[in-house]
Amino acid sequence: MDTILVPEPEESLPNLSVSNDQGILQWISSVDHKQIGIMYLWLSVLFLVVAGIEILLVRLQLAIPNNHFLAPEVYNQLFTMHGTTMIFFVAMPAIFGFTTYFVPLMIGANDMAFPRLNAFSFWTTFFGGSLLYFSFIAGGAPDAGWFNYAPLNEYNYSSSPGIDYYCAGLLFAGIGTVTASINFVVTILHYRVPAMSLKQMPLFVWMILINSFLILAAFPSLNAALAMLLLDRQLHAHFFSAAGGGSAILWQHLFWLFGHPEVYIVILPIFGIFSEVFPVFSRKPIFGYSMVIGSGIAIALLAFGVWVHHMFATGLGNTVNGFFAASSLLIGIPTGVKIFNWLATMHGGAIRFSVSMLFAIAFLIEFTIGGLSGISFAIVPIDWQLTDTYYVVAHLHFVFIGGTLFGLLSGLFYWFPKMSGRVPDQRLSRWFFWLFVAGFNITFLVQHALGAMGMPRRVYTYPNLPGWGVLNLISTIGAFLMAGAVGLLVYILVRALNKGAIAASDPWDANTLEWTTTSPPGLKNFDRVIPVKSTRPFRDYKRPEDADWKRQEAAYTEKPPDIDITQNNSHGE
Amino acid sequence: MTGQLFLNINPSSIFDAASPQAARIRHLTIEFIIAASAILILVVILTSFISIKYRSKRQQEDPKQITGNRTLEMWMVGVPLILVILFFFRSLATMNAVLPDRGNHSPDIIITGHQWFWEAVYPGTTITTANEIHLPVGKRILMQLNAADVIHDWWVPALGGKMDMIPGMNNYLWVTIDRPGIYEGACSEFCGQQHAWMRIRVVAESPGDYTLWLRQEAAGAHVPQDTLARAGAVLFLESTCSSCHCVKGTAAAGLTGPDLTHFGSRQTMLTGMMANDSVNLGRWLTDPQQVKPGAHMPRFIFAKDSIRALTAYLEQLK
Q1: b/e map of A44-74 (b: 16 or more CB within 10 Å)?
Q2: Number of domains in chain B
Q3: What are phi and psi of B171, to 5 degrees?
Q4: What are B203-224's pLDDT values in tens digits?
Q5: How near does any CA of chain A get to the CA of B194, in Å?
Q6: pTM of the model
Q7: Closest-CA residue in chain B for A392?
Q8: Contact pairs from chain A to chain B, CB under 8 Å
Q9: In Å, how far is A292's CA from the nearest CA of chain B?
Q10: I want to staple A478 with a disulfide (CB 3.0 to 4.6 A). Which of A387, A408, A443, B122 is the partner?
């Protein structure tokens, strides 16, 4: 087979001569994308445990009505930190971990475009998270919710330094996020193996490319809002205080102009992961490759025109609300059709129920529930009833857990053998899957009902109204089941790292370039890369007689090109 | 203790509509639930069916490599698009019916959210009250909603959708209550430490009862009869209670805390937190921060007799 030379970063790589396992000092000084990726993932696990403990305390407090387990000021800090941590220091680092590790491998490169910047991105994220948590010993954590509405976030109403740390921590982490995104864009556009055209890129890489642009456009709005809030709090400016001529609602516009794209930022890469997992475990190509990309781009563009659906109850008037109702309903379509892309991918396939695929299949149903409950917020009058209730809490956890976390777990079980060279215990992993899915549904399904029954979110306790106590108790039991499952997951991972069976380089009979190298890949990913002539180069290599590009060419010569222009056009090069 | 607080209230989920506004929204909600359930059932059936039918068999050859189907893809986009357009126009119609422009209509009641109580002013009268909001049945009422400090949110599920109260802004909400009764609601925008105990209680009365209530409420405070209560009245003015609380007909004219002119006629205290009785009142006056941490009422170190006197006075403010 003819092979192709591997693109490498133009700046020289420090420490390439050192081996991969020289202890902690080597890790913290590393600029290797694989080590940085793994550090991102461990950072995410660390914060997952911390934010998980926070929410278990919250659920204990809510287990029975009129409970006195936690004081209100403690409760408010805990739920604020839970939300902020899960979004910024669990979901984002986990996504960046997989991205940093696998994007270079999937495009046949030996590292990211800017290896030093890559390390900088990780460490600023780490520093931002540490700064946020330092607030606990500096006089109190932030206590105004993860979206931190004005004027409750102003000094007059929250005088502990918590919200200052919230601003500073998120600003730092945001710098890391933006630099990482620049790095992803340049890497993807400039360091692909030369044979790989854009239309031959794996869908995970496509989603990261779209997502990186989304991040670059969304974060300035958050950073501006945080800087204005710091000015208000530290220098007595009046951006968000009505009494001084500012506007409380301005915060909401700025925050959600970032915040709604943000929820797509943590789901688009997940769509990418699933678009790798479904084809591999169904042994079929993705159904509608260009449709998945097109709907991803549509989501990214529409994401900037939907933020007011978080503000339908703020009294902006029916004209404004009507406009944003239309855009919010529209964005449901490109999100929803993907479910059918994946179902069609499975249809007619040969499905293997690995743990990764189990999470993918469960995702189809859980994410549909979360997506549909999301549509109810685009229908303005229903939003007027249900916004800011436990129904929202249920909805957002169905998309963040049933969507983002299931995707991350699917990706984890898919890529773990590649990253560690070890195979996790199958039986225990299946136990983990069922325990986690059961716990998740027990926790959050009942919360839809609580919201419709009138329970607002973010209350530290509630009166003993009929049914409220029972449903909350069920929810708390489910939360502890999930916590048990996460404990089991950590055990499975640590055990696999220590004495798991040795993984083959291509355990799943997969399609993309990361599986052509060893498990785990050496410090230098590739010396040579197999030819890329379609979206599934490794499958083409393993089954030359049934290669995608051959089928492509055959279709091209037999019929006019209208049927197959969606797919792997090998004439593109 | 709190159990009996909810003995006489009406069921208050979003499906227990007691106003045409809430009924309109309920109708749309049920339509949505039907459509959403149909989609969910379709996905569940497809997922289960495909997973079972196409599970991998031993030694199987690669299945047929299908990369797409333009017609199917059109359907995948087209059907949801039609559904979405349908619901868009249904929502526009409902929005305009539930929350029409207020035109020149002046508000029938002005409610202001405070950390953590509701202040209700009835324009055209001298009445100011707190927390238990009396409204007449059968009349289309325009509520003006304001905030004194941070953002609060008015939500009584049985009476319709919620509306934020934002400092520096006037928001409006229409409501027409169908039946007399007590309707429970709650502040639905996180507003700080005691957001949980910012419950709403709407007391809907027949026009006759409502007029009677207005008349009672417009009168000044009840003059204390016995010595204990009279001592309480003196204490109320002397120990600075009056700098935050108003009792009409006396020198107490504070505007920071809830108006207490007819405090004794309310069923609950501390914004729906507990029954309004002498035991709870005594506990509250002894140490507010223990009863409702974060509340803006300072702790006064009262002697036991002073608390008894104040309690007697406040309970008589019917």
Answers
A1: bbebbebbbebbbbbbebbbbbebeebebbb
A2: 2
A3: -110, 155
A4: 999 999 999 999 999 988 888 8
A5: 7
A6: 0.93
A7: B188
A8: 283
A9: 11
A10: A443
Chosen for mutation from B40, B164, B268, B271 (greatest number of chain A CBs closer than 10 Å) is B164
pLDDT in tens, B112-145: 999 999 999 999 999 999 999 999 999 999 999 9
Query: Residue A147, Cα to own-chain centre: how many angstroms?
Result: 18
What number of other Cβ atoms are within 10 A of residue B3's Cβ?
12
Question: Is residue B190 domain-resident?
Answer: yes
| Total length of chain B | 318
- Domain boundary among the residues B159, B190, B218 is at B218
Shared-domain flag, residues B170 and B231: no
Residue A209 · residue A171 · CB < 8 Å: no
Q: Residues of A with CB below 8 A from B153's CB? A: 313, 388
Contacts of B25 in chain A (CB under 8 A): 381-382, 384-385
Q: Do A458 and B92 touch (CB under 8 A)?
A: no
Domain annotation covers residue B56: no
Q: How far is B95 from chain A (nearest CA, A)?
A: 6
Q: Are A156 and A69 in contact (CB under 8 A)?
A: no
Chain A: closest CA distance from residue B117 (Å): 15
Q: Which of B33, B67, B151 to mutate to test the interface with A (most CBs of A within 10 A)?
A: B67
CB contact (8 A) between residue B66 and residue A287: yes
Whether the CA torsion B58, B62, B64, B67 is positive or negative: it is: positive
- Asked if A287 has any chain B CB less than 8 Å from its own CB, the reply is yes
- Print pLDDT tens along chain A (573 aa): 445 556 666 555 555 444 556 678 888 888 999 999 999 999 999 999 999 999 999 999 999 999 999 999 999 999 999 999 999 999 999 999 999 999 999 999 999 999 999 999 999 999 999 999 999 999 899 999 999 999 999 999 999 999 999 999 999 999 999 999 999 999 999 999 988 999 999 999 999 999 999 999 999 999 999 999 999 999 999 999 888 889 999 999 999 999 999 999 999 999 999 999 999 999 999 999 999 999 999 999 999 999 999 999 999 999 999 999 999 999 999 998 999 999 999 999 999 999 999 999 999 999 999 999 999 999 999 999 999 999 999 999 999 999 999 999 999 999 999 999 999 999 999 999 999 999 999 999 999 999 999 999 999 999 999 899 999 999 999 999 999 999 999 999 999 999 999 999 999 999 999 999 998 998 889 888 999 999 999 999 999 888 888 887 777 666 554 544 444 444 433
Q: Within this chain, do residues B124 and B251 fall inside the same structural domain, yes or no?
A: no
Nearest-Cα residue of chain B relative to residue A319: B92
Residue B210 shares a structural domain with residue B236: no
- Nearest CA distance, A279 vs chain B (angstrom): 10
Judge whether A434 is closer than 8 Å to chain B, CB to CB.
no
B160 and B305 co-located in one domain: no
A385 to B149: CB separation less than 8 angstroms, yes or no? no
Q: Do B20 and B90 have their domain in common?
A: yes
End-to-end CA distance of chain B: 22
Based on the domain organization, do B252 and B211 belong to the same domain?
A: no
The partner residues of B183 in beta bridges, in order of sequence, read B202
For CA atoms A353, A356, A357, A361, give the dihedral sign.
positive
Whether B59 maps to a domain, the answer reads no
Range of the domain at B131: 10-43+78-218
Residues B154 and B291 in one domain: no
Residues B194 and B286 in one domain: no
Nearest by CB to residue A315, choosing from B13, B65, B164, is B164
Residue B178 sits in a domain of what CATH number? 2.60.40.420
Find which of B7, B27, B76, B292 to mutate to test the A interface (most A CBs within 10 Å of its CB): B76
Q: Pairing relation of β-strands B268-269 and B171-176? A: unpaired
Domains of chain A with CATH codes: 4-9+31-572 (1.20.210.10)
B91 inside domain: yes
ipTM of the complex: 0.95
Q: How far apart are CA A525 and CA A102, in angstroms?
A: 11
User: CB–CB of A274/A363 below 8 Å?
Assistant: yes
Q: How far is A233 from chain B (nearest CA, A)?
A: 15
B140-147 β-sheet, strand order: B128-130, B117-121, B109-114, B140-147, B171-176
User: Where does a domain end: B161, B193, B218?
Assistant: B218
Of B81, B94, B193, Cβ closest to residue A381: B94
